[in-house]
Amino acid sequence: MNIRYTKQFLSKLEDIFAESDYVLRYEKGNFKSGYCLLNDTKIAIINKYYTVEGKINCLIDILKEITIDTSLLNNKNQKLYNELLQTELDI
What we know:
With 91 residues, the chain is α+β, with helices and mostly antiparallel strands. It has one domain.
């Protein structure tokens, strides 16, 4: 899958989180990896000062690390989620 670093693609990734049982928040902080994942409370926090590219990379990393119930996602987001799980990032 070819990842596009645009605000529209960022919005698509945010939609996956909106439909899942995880809460996505943008906060300021000194996260070593650019994000903080609180698995017990299902909250993902991303550094709000990151660029669009940085936010997209963090969201993809988080999606690969957590387990999302795909039955909660609509068909379009299920397809995107499955494609992202098979994608390698070129950072």
